[in-house]
Design a protein that fits this description.
alpha+beta; Heat Shock Protein 90; 2 helices; 31% helix
């Protein structure tokens, strides 16, 4: 079995993300931005999909996606912010300070 290169894995992850956003959020437009500055690197993913109310995630149906994203961000010392509203799309931002 062939081990995918880092570039192939990156493409696979982006493809999976786009498919998830299209299916779950019913997004027509997805914007991915990576910004690097000497003090911080920030990844932002925004869509024009269905959106949701992050303050009212139903406890009976926990949002494992949000939980896992938060845990992964914390594991590398990053900050995760999620902005969303019903009918307004979603914006997820992960920022990590650079050592220096």
């Amino acid at each position: 079995m062939k081990v995918p290169s880092p570039r192939e894995r990156e493409l696979q992850h982006k493809t999976e993300l786009a498919q998830l956003l299209e299916q779950l959020a019913r997004a027509k437009r997805i914007e991915v931005t990576l910004a690097a500055a000497p003090e911080r690197v920030t990844l932002t993913i925004a869509d024009d999909g269905a959106g949701f109310d992050p303050e009212h995630v139903v406890p009976a149906r926990p949002s494992w996606g949000l939980t896992i994203m938060q845990e992964r961000a914390e594991a590398i010392g990053a900050r995760l912010t999620v902005e969303s509203a019903p009918g307004k799309g979603t914006r997820v931002c992960v920022a990590i300070d650079c050592p220096g």
